[in-house]
Each structure stands twice: as structure tokens, then as C-alpha cells.
Amino acid sequence: MLRRIAQLLIKEFLQLKRDKSARFRLLVPPMIQMLLFGYAATFEVFNVSTAMLDQDHTPESRALVAAFAHSSRFELTTTASNRAQAEQAVASSSAQVGIVVPPGFAALLRKGQSAPLQVLLDGTNSNTALIALGYVNDIANTFGQSMALELAQRTGHALARPLVHVDVAQRYWYNPNLNSRWFFVPGVIGTLTLVTIVNLTAFAIVREREVGTLEQLLVTPIRPAEFILGKTLPFFLIGLVEVGLVTGLGMYWFHIPFVGNPLLLFGATCLYLISILSIGLFISTICTTQQQAFAANFFVLNPMFILSGFSFPISSMPHFLQWLTLLDPLRYYLVIIRGTFLKGVGLDVLWPQLAALAAIGVVLLTVSVLRFRKALD
């Protein structure tokens, strides 16, 4: 049995060696996608196009405008002369944010009172609008504090009877600089592995059936169980190699810290690979052509990506979708890989995710093998 499986493994790797395009697809696209996701996927917002309207025309209002202009978060693309121009800039999408400094802004500040500032936001991209509004509040609050301090130093009255306030001391654990790349890159490792391994498994077996070599293998002494093991084991080993490559790229190119246990991540990766290999094997049992396999992969992989929590919080989804995410192995692997990379958590914390991956892997593999054996018969 072992010799027959070994011969089938040799056949798979020889076929991979002869197929230059397959070797290219295994190595180059995952590296390129890791680099693209690492640089492009981010929650941070820079150079937000901004329309500025200063109706006060005082040194204080010009100082506030300069604070926005010198910030890397905003780019002043439009200097409006009236409110209609500022509103038109936002309505025409030439500016994502419109900031209006009303008349009397400086006069209120000089009296020690709160001064209004109007912000117009393009809500078509709600995420960017909310983040940009947060940046506006930060700049405005910093400016207001500096003006209050200057007023107190100049008059001395504000310091004589200070207002009661709360100082918030912020401390960010595991990601001190709130670098969103530290969040995305570990997730990309699981996502790229999912897409690559499911595609490889489904297409490889369907290709055997489509070109007629599957029937030739069935007339050999090899048994169905040996055939399934011989077809999936190479992709399991390829998955381990790919995880190692993209993990190394994330650690040494993007400088993502890894503070966890490598053996724990290795064991979790093995369980994860078994689960997604089973998905590819299941797809191969319901498809007879590579075109059908492509359509089935698209139908399966996109929902798995969306429901995994890679970029959309699971807690924000409707309850029925939150229950549906429990069937997604990528959901559990993302918790494990982010926890081992950034937090260094151990088996005592991650055992529920490992148990879920093991259960999903056993169920999916059993169903897929039974269906595949029936298809072979």
C-alpha cells in the first residue's frame, strides 16, 4: 500500500515538475498577492481630498486651515469662496470632505467659548467618511486645546479656575502603533492558502477525469482510498510549503512580529489544510469539467472569505450569518494565526478553535471521501 501511494506521489510531483505554468502559479502569484495585500489593505486613510471654506478670515481661522493643510491625512484640493462651492465640491466627488469655518469663529475663541466648525462628508464610502471625521475631530480638539492654553497664558483667568476634565491615558496592547498591516498580513496567509489549495485539489482531480487518465488509474491495482490519499497528500505538502513562504515574507518583508509557539501554529495549519483539502475534494465530486470546478470554487470561496472575519467583524453581521460562520474553517484559522503572531497565546486559549478545525476537518473529509468513492465506483 505504501509503495503504491509513494508511486502516485512521485507521479504527481513529476507532473508538477513538467508543468511550468503550474509551478509559476504555485510560487509567484501568492508572493505577488501577499505584497499587494500587505501594501494596499489598510484601515488607515491618507490624503483625503478636502474642500476648505474660511468665512472668518482671521489669524486663528488661518491657523486652523494650516493645521489641516499640513496634516498627511488631508489634501486641500479645493479652496471655496462660498458655501455653494464647498457643497458642490462634495456633491461632485471632487472632495470627500468639506470643512467650513463660519464667521465669528475667532471671536468666540478669544472669549474662551466653544467655536463651531461645520464638516461636510461624502457618505457614499461610509468607512472613509467615519475615519476622516475622526481625524477632523482630533485636529480640531488639538487646535482648541492649544488656543485655550494660549488664552490662559495671556489672560491668566482660565488658569485661576480650571474646568474639570478627564485625561485619558491610552495604551494599545499587541500593536502599539495601531499598524493595520499587522492585522491584515497574518489574515492574508490563511486566505491565500485557502484559495490555492482548494483550487489545486478541485482542478487536479477534475482534470484527471476530463482528460481520461482517471479511468486509466482505476484499472491499476491502486485502491480508491490509496488514490484519494495519493492525490491529496501532495497538495497538503504544497500547502505547508506555501504557508512557510508567505509567512516568511510577512515576517521579514513587512516586519510582522511573531511571538507565539511555532509548533502550535504548525499543528493548527495541518488541521486547517485538512479542512480545505476536503472542500476541494468535495468540489471535485460534484464537477465533471474544469469550467464547472471554476464556477463551484467561486461560489464556495467568496462566501468563506466574507464570513471569515478577515476584514468584516463577525459580531456586526446578522445573527443567522454569525451562525453560518461557524462552518467556515478560515474563521478559526484567522483567530489562531493572529493570536500566535501578535499575542503569543497558547493552547489553553486557542483549544476551542483547534477543536472546531478538527471537527470540521473530520466531517468534511469523511463526507468528501465517501462521495468520491461513490463517484469512482
TrEMBL record:
Protein topology in the membrane: Multi-pass membrane protein
Q: Which UniProt keywords apply?
A: Cell membrane, Membrane, Transmembrane, Transmembrane helix, Transport
Domain ABC transmembrane type-2 residues, every copy: 149-375
GO CC annotation: plasma membrane
Residue stretches spanning the membrane:
26-46, 182-206, 233-256, 262-283, 295-314, 350-372
Q: Which compartments does it reside in?
A: Cell membrane
Entry's PROSITE patterns? ABC_TM2
Q: Origin, by domain of life? A: Bacteria
What molecular functions are annotated in GO for this chain?
Answer: ABC-type transporter activity
Q: Which family does it belong to?
A: Belongs to the ABC-2 integral membrane protein family.
Put simply, this protein is called: ABC transporter permease
Lineage runs: Bacteria, Pseudomonadati, Pseudomonadota, Betaproteobacteria, Burkholderiales
